[in-house]
Give the backbone structure.
Amino acid sequence: MFEIENLHVSIDDKEILKGVNLTVNKGEIHAIMGPNGSGKSTMAYVIAGHPSYEVTEGSIRYNGEDILEWEPDERAQKGIFLAFQYPTVIPGVSMANFLRMAVTNTRNARAEEAAANGGSVEKMAPREFRKLMREKMALLKMDDAFASRYLNEGFSGGEKKRAEILQMALLEPSLAVLDETDSGLDIDALRVVSDGVNALHNDEMGMLVITHYQRLLNHIKPHFVHIMMDGRIVQEGGPELAHELEAKGYETLRAEFGVPA
């Protein structure tokens, strides 16, 4: 479903990603682990289409199509979702209005594409959106009053991350990238957010979970673990690899793979 091949990425003439290869199939959860500055978030931003990053070599294919020429909104409409590590605060825009616009635009774009290909997808009616939003908020243990608050304004770390997962729940992506969703969460918030992610994941969704720590992976169980250092994936394996990393630490791996500090 999703394939990164020999991806090289620079920003301000500094190379960040130095030949990343990664394949994600439907239903799979892949964990990307690595120290600060290893390129994890850069990869997430490039997948989402951040304009500050320059792809100098390689490709990203989604359902067989090269996405590098797609705008960020087109990627979202096609089913690619990024949960930000540091969600943006937007005063004056309520959660409900923001979510309604995002979901309506995405659903309508998918409906038009389906119609152009001889199929059909229902456009989102306002009543349907309100019902769907209440269902997803209940799943994430969010109070109804949450919807009337301004987007991320005054939110705790846990509330910001739950707001990101609520967006994922409503947009129903085929590929979800979670960029350090565990950062800033206490134990209870981590469990609530993880339970929400697990409830949303299905056999049609591929998922990339970016994290520093094993603790998130105690809740969201990956099928594969990839360790990224100095802009490259240096080691890959099953869930046990995260436990090995926890025991060894990154410094041991730096020495093992000759990665500069």
In short: Residues 95-116 form the longest helix (22 residues). The chain has one domain: 2-257. The longest strand covers residues 14-24. The chain has a mean pLDDT of 91.
